[in-house]
Amino acid sequence: MKYQIMVRMLMMLLTRKKVTAAEVAQKYEISLRTVYRYVEELNISGIPVDVVRGRSGGIYLADTFRLPSGYFTRGEYTAAINALTAMATQVNDEDTLSALEKLRHQQKSDKRDVSICGNILIDGGAWCDMGTFSEKMRVCEQAVNQCLSLEIDYISRDGEHSKRIIDPYVLIFKQNIWYVYAYCHSRADFRTFKIGRIRQARFTGKSFEKQPVSREDIPLNFGYSSEQLIPVTLEIRKEAIADVEEWLGVDNIEPRGDGLVANVSLPDDETSVEKILGYGGKVRVVEPADLRKRVRAAALAIAESNA
Fold first, then answer.
1. CB 197 within 8 A of CB 156
2. DSSP code per residue over 78-136
3. For 173-207, how does the pLDDT look when each residue is reduced to its tens digit (9 = 90+)?
4. Helix, strand, or coil here: 218?
5. For residues 16 and 247, what is the distance between their CA atoms, to the nearest angstrom?
6. Residue 29 — φ and ψ, nearest 5°?
7. pTM above the 0.90 mark?
8. Average pLDDT, the chain
9. CATH architecture classification, 2-61
10. How confident is the model at residue 14 (pLDDT cuts 50, 70, 90)?
11. Which terminus of the chain is more solvent-facing, meaning fewer CB atoms within 10 Å of its CB: N or C?
């Protein structure tokens, strides 16, 4: 009975996104304590269910969640909905109507794995992505287009885990990474969030009015001030040119003698060292000497650890 109730709770949340603990307790004749225990077990199983306390609170399901694609194929969704629709016209059965509504909602959530902005089609997921990233993109795009506030569960680069209410203004794509530029209510200021680091997101049910923001207002160094960037000259072997062009851009690479050279500004930290090492010797640091020494030291450390 326990798992039947948990499945029914999930179906309620898929349909409505929010229910109250008292409502669930009354419907299934269980205690509030049991309801919260079931919520915790759903979370442990990987379903992002959240509890918000207070008068307007309740049990929420993240808007970025959907059932795995193996649960139903699109053809199966259509066949099931058509059959239930035909049945619903003949009988006025509450369970049939409830099942039909749940399937319609899930089909709507499952309709697209990519986002479309004007004439741009976006598939931001990794090759192994099972739709999670695409769902986050879809939610962020909808929030930007319709001025809808989001509550996000965010994990920073330092591993800090936080929940924030944000008002998304614009999506940004830089160096093959998607970001959302938003007003953060926790910091009372604008921040840039990497979409890949958003664990889950849900609509708060509130909208916002966009403040005037110009292109110059949006920082595109993503945490790096001009003082943290250093001029770097790189020699690039021809077999690495395609990958380096995607990293640095074709405009920053030029032929010199028998080879290729790039003159760019890079962060003066270990991220640059790790990126250069990733090319496996096909990219060499010419200047500055300090960065060249750090890359060499890191390469030697890797060689020693794998000896």
1. yes
2. HHHHHHHHHHHHH---HHHHHHHHHHHHHHHHTS-SSEEETTEEE----TT--SHHHHH
3. 876 678 899 999 999 999 999 888 888 888 998 99
4. coil
5. 43
6. 55, 50
7. no
8. 80
9. Orthogonal Bundle (1.10)
10. confident
11. C
User: pLDDT tens across 92-149, in order?
Assistant: 666 667 666 666 665 544 444 445 455 555 555 555 555 677 788 889 989 999 999 9
Kind and range of the H or E element at 65?
Answer: none
CA distances from 65 to 54, 68, 199 (A): 24, 9, 10
Q: Which two tokens stand for residue 164?
A: 């924030």
H or E, element range at 267:
strand 259-267
Domain residue spans in the chain? Answer: 2-61, 69-109, 115-217, 226-305
Give me the amino acid identity at 83: A
Tell me whether the CATH fold assigned to 2-61 matches the one assigned to 115-217: no
Q: Which two tokens stand for residue 97?
A: 């109507």
Distance CA 281, CA 262 (A): 15
Residue 216 per-residue DSSP state: G
Which phi and psi angles does 101 have, rounded to 5°? -65, -40
The pair of three-digit structure tokens given for residue 255, joined into one six-digit string: 């032929």
**Helix or strand or coil: residue 194?**
strand
Q: How much of the chain is in helix, strand and coil states, percent to nearest 5?
A: 45, 30, 25
Q: Which residues contact 103 (CB under 8 A, 6 or more apart)?
A: 72, 77, 80, 81, 84
Q: Under DSSP, is residue 62 helix (H, G, I), strand (E, B) or coil?
A: coil
State the residue for tokens 């109507």. Answer: 97
Q: Is there a contact between 202 and 143 (Cβ–Cβ < 8 Å)?
A: no
Kindly report the length of the chain. 307
Check: CATH 3.30.160 for 115-217?
no
Asked if 294 contacts 273 with a C-beta cutoff of 8 angstroms, the reply is yes
CATH topology assigned to domain 226-305: Alpha-Beta Plaits (3.30.70)
Calculate the dihedral angle through the C-alpha atoms of 257, 260, 265, 271, rounding to the nearest 10 degrees. -140
| Residue 101 CB burial class (10 angstroms; 0-12, 13-18, ≥19) | middle
